[in-house]
Amino acid sequence: MLRIMGKKLGAPGFTALPAGLALRSYSSSAKQMTIREAINSALDEEMAADQSVFLMGEEVGEYQGAYKVSKGLLQKYGPERVVDTPITECGFTGIGVGAAFYGLRPVVEFMTFNFAMQAMDQIINSAAKTNYMSSGNISVPIVFRGPNGAAAGVGAQHSQCYAAWYGSCPGLKVLIPYSSEDARGLLKAAIRDPDPVVFLENELLYGEAFPVSAEVLDSGFCIPIGKAKIEREGKHVTITAFSKMVGFSLQAAEILAKDGIDAEVINLRSIRPLDRATINASVRKTNRLLTVEEGFPQHGVGAEICASIVEDSFGYLDAPVERITGADVPLPYAANLERMALPQVEDIVRAAKRACYRSLPIAATA
Amino acid sequence: MACSATAQIIQPLSINSARSVDNSGACTKILSPSSFLGSTPRINKKLFAVNKSISSLARRPTIVFAVSSDVVKEKKLKSNSSLSNLLITKEEGLELYEDMYLGRAFEDMCAQMYYRGKMFGFVHLYNGQEAVSTGFIKLLKKEDCVVSTYRDHVHSLSKGVPAREVMSELFGKTTGCCRGQGGSMHMFSKEHNVLGGFAFIGEGIPVATGAAFTSKYKREVFKEDCDEVTLAFFGDGTCNNGQFFECLNMAALWKLPIVFVVENNLWAIGMSHVRATSDPQIWKKGPAFGMPGVHVDGMDVLKVREVAKEAIGRARRGEGPTLVECETYRFRGHSLADPDELRDPAEKAHYATRDPITALKKYIAENKLASEAELKAIDKKIDELVEDAVEFADRSPVPARNQLLENVFADPRGFGIGPDGKYRCEDPKFTEGTAQV
Question: Where is the Transketolase-like pyrimidine-binding domain (chain A) (predicted)?
Answer without folding.
Answer: 33-208
